[in-house]
Design goal:
The structure is a homodimer. With about 160 residues, chain A is mainly alpha-helical. Chain A contains seven helices and three strands. Chain A has a single domain, classed as dinb family like domain (Four Helix Bundle (Hemerythrin (Met), subunit A), Up-down Bundle), CATH 1.20.120.450. In chain A, about 65% of the residues lie in helices and about 5% in strands. A two-stranded antiparallel sheet of chain A has the order 2-3. The termini of chain A are far apart. Chains A, B: Belongs to the DinB family.
């Protein structure tokens, strides 16, 4: 499997993917910042979760998932461990996870990206697909966050500004 | 530049990226389908565009951008050329562009992904960054579409179902 994948055309290197992901994480951080404190924890449309809950989901995926991949342990997904009460707490944890993601991502080998792993004991896919899913899930929920901000009459950050 | 990039760890091959993108396009197609005809063209939150307009934007990027990259022409972005009046027209064009994207994407070489190109005469970035932007932009606007559907009381398609 690994051989087949690596003899084909490379689209991007792992360094480029990490930079891409961290660029998205910078933008998501700006979206968290753009919410007024109260609305971050309470505002919702159509019965969906407030943006603080979505931010906690993202924080509970990135770093913990990479740790699981690197250490090959399949602990269940857990978003109950972190219960922030303020925007500041969320941003602080966000920045801590930036370092965790950089560290663990760089420990994944080229071969490993192509190997199947049962992430969180539940999502059995090639590692690269799981990682792309983390990024997509973040962009998806952030699109929801942009809509919340617009509904609140707040101008969201520019989508293309990442660093 | 090319050499530096290709001696580093591969994250994904071009075939894997294309499959990933087309999986997202399948999901976006389901989101278009999920809108009632009238709301597809008219429903909006916070002054943002209705989902039909967003779908036209996506249709005006993917295929035309890849043609520009392959043929190295820098014609300006144009979303005025396609003015659908029905959901059916949008879905038909969507499916035609699926083939255009497959054809042109496969004509881009590994070296080319790393080369800078002035897309639409305006966005001067490495080709791989422009292509990731197309996917991200789609996931972003689709997240907005999910929020519209929830606000309309309509259950959106599963985020993880792509094929």
């Amino acid at each position: 499997m690994t051989t087949t994948a690596t003899i084909t055309k490379q689209f991007i290197s792992s360094e480029q993917l990490l930079e891409h992901w961290q660029g998205h994480r910078n933008l998501t951080r700006r979206v968290i910042e753009a919410f007024p404190e109260k609305e971050l924890f309470e505002f919702s449309i159509g019965g969906m979760r407030p943006f603080a809950k979505l931010a906690v989901e993202l924080i509970s995926i990135g770093g913990p998932a990479l740790k699981g991949i690197v250490n090959k342990h399949e602990e269940a997904f857990n978003e109950e461990a972190f219960n922030p009460k303020t925007k500041e707490e969320i941003l602080k944890k966000w920045d801590e996870e930036t370092q965790v993601i950089n560290q663990y991502f760089n420990e994944i080998s080229e071969e490993r990206f192509q190997e199947t792993f049962n992430l969180f004991g539940q999502y059995e896919f090639p590692v690269y697909q799981n990682i792309l899913y983390f990024v997509d899930n973040e962009v998806h929920h952030r699109g929801q966050g942009y809509t919340y901000l617009r509904a609140l009459g707040i101008e969201p950050p520019f989508f293309w500004e990442r660093f």
